[in-house]
């Protein structure tokens, strides 16, 4: 372990944990992957072995070995474990949505605040260089009246996330899985989302959500993971006095995760606990999801 490297434990061993988190943590200069936790001993053993980490099925043992935890588990599991980790003084890299419901998100944020630990939510799109430059340009220009996000994918029709139980659950699906990305970018581009004006869930778990922003702008989000669209459409647009500007998803998840780890390591090193994508962002997004669900009935 290098000087000042953060010892990070990975909670979860699924496809996202093994393809993005584990290699990202192992290869980043500011972090070392110290331990891997799973409820299934063979899964923990298998992933830990690849990265010379310690496998464990015991949370207390996990907490003893690390300074921070990265989560790659379903929202309900994260909401159960992460507050305990915060209380044990561990900094947190959280998956989105940060909990299965708004109450769980608020409990998690309260635990993080009380413990005074750093937190970041895996809003990977926000950390890509292209997104950062686009948002800088959009916010400097100002004068936007509206915008929209479209994320149309067949990810739940087949492939490595198609067996994900929480994503297949009607309470999860597109709204909970890709909704946080869409709402986060619209909010960052057009100003804070103050409420959901309308929401509809149609066939193929196709969501249409109308949002109100501080300052009077409105935006729409169209979301589904159950349409055979190839390649996936994932784009955000804003329009107003400065014309029309679009952002399409670019770069890899690995590149975005590296940028996230840069910010995370810097936060921990400097004792900073606030960030545009910290746990409170997770609560804000959970509130939007909660309102959309309620309006869609």
UniProtKB/TrEMBL annotation:
Residues 6-118 form the Gfo/Idh/MocA-like oxidoreductase N-terminal domain. Gene3D superfamilies: Dihydrodipicolinate Reductase, domain 2, NAD(P)-binding Rossmann-like Domain. It comes from the Bacteria. InterPro entries: Gfo/Idh/MocA-like_OxRdtase_N, Gfo/Idh/MocA_oxidrdct_glycsds, GFO_IDH_MocA-like_dom, NAD(P)-bd_dom_sf. Residues 163-243 form the GFO/IDH/MocA-like oxidoreductase domain. The keyword Oxidoreductase applies. GO terms for molecular function: nucleotide binding; oxidoreductase activity. SUPFAM superfamilies: Glyceraldehyde-3-phosphate dehydrogenase-like, C-terminal domain, NAD(P)-binding Rossmann-fold domains. Signal peptide: none annotated. This is Putative dehydrogenase. It comes from Amycolatopsis jiangsuensis. The lineage of its organism: Bacteria, Bacillati, Actinomycetota, Actinomycetes, Pseudonocardiales.
């Amino acid at each position: 372990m290098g000087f000042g490297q953060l010892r990070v434990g990975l909670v979860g061993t699924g496809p996202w944990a093994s393809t993005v988190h584990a290699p990202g943590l192992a290869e980043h200069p500011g972090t070392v992957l110290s331990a891997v936790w799973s409820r299934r001993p063979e899964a923990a053993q298998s992933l830990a072995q690849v990265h010379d980490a310690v496998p464990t099925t015991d949370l207390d043992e996990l907490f003893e070995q690390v300074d921070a935890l990265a989560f790659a588990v379903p929202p309900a599991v994260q909401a159960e474990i992460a507050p305990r980790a915060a209380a044990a003084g561990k900094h947190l890299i959280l998956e989105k949505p940060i909990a299965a419901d708004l109450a769980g998100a608020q409990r998690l944020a309260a635990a993080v605040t009380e413990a005074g630990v750093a937190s970041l939510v895996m809003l990977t799109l926000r950390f890509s260089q292209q997104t950062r430059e686009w948002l800088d340009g959009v916010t400097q220009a100002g004068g936007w009246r509206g915008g929209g996000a479209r994320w149309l994918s067949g990810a739940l029709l087949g492939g490595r996330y198609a067996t994900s139980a929480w994503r297949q659950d009607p309470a999860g699906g597109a709204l909970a899985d890709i909704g946080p990305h869409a709402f986060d970018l619209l909010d960052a581009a057009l100003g804070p989302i103050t409420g959901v004006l309308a929401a509809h869930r149609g066939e193929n778990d196709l969501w249409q959500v109308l949002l109100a922003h501080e300052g009077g702008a409105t935006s729409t989000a169209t979301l589904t993971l159950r349409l055979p669209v190839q390649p996936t459409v994932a784009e955000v647009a804003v329009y107003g006095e400065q014309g029309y500007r679009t952002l399409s998803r670019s770069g890899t998840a690995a590149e975005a995760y590296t940028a996230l780890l840069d910010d995370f390591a810097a936060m921990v090193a400097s004792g900073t606990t606030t960030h545009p994508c910290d746990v409170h962002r997770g609560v804000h997004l959970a509130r939007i999801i909660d309102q959309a669900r309620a309006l869609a009935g």
